[in-house]
Description:
The protein is of the alpha+beta class. The chain contains three helices and four strands. The chain has a four-stranded antiparallel β-sheet, covered by helices on one side.
Amino acid sequence: MEWVNHMWRVILLSILMLVLVGVALRLWMFFAGIRVTSWWRSPWHNATVGGNLWSLHQFGLAVDVVPVNPAVLSQLRRIPLAGLIVTESDHLHVQVV
Length: 97
């Protein structure tokens, strides 16, 4: 039974670390002056906006930003946690990888 308690501690600490990474990403963007249009989404909101079933927005590990221009893209590339940057129709999708 001891291993079950240990397993839950590891799972909870892992989730906490992911949440902290998502918050750090968002704070970095806030202080860099980057305009975020979407960050944390509930599964219901994610489904409403047509998000992927396992969208990282649901875990706070993805953000959508505007405007789409080279200056903002350059700023995003300097953020250590922003691993994947995708240009979508009207925004940039940034997620931790």
